[in-house]
Amino acid sequence: MTAVTGEQFDLSLETSSGGIVEATITQVAAGIRRLSVHGIDIVPPYDANVQRPYGSGMVLVPWPNRIRDGKWMLNGQEQQLALTEPKKNNASHGLLRFAPYSVAARTESTLKLEARVFPQSGYPFLLDTAVTYRLVDAGVEVTHSITNLSDASAPVAIGAHPYFTIGDVEPEDLTVTVHVTTRIEIDDRSLPTGEKTPIEQTPFDLRKGVRLGDLDIDAGFSGARIVDGVSEHFVTAPDGRSVTVWGDENFRYWQVFTNEVYPGQSKVVAIEPMTAPADAFNSGQDLRWLKPGETWEASWGVRADGFAPV
Question: Could you tell me which PANTHER family the record lists for this protein (predicted)?
Answer without folding.
Answer: ALDOSE-1-EPIMERASE, GALACTOSE MUTAROTASE
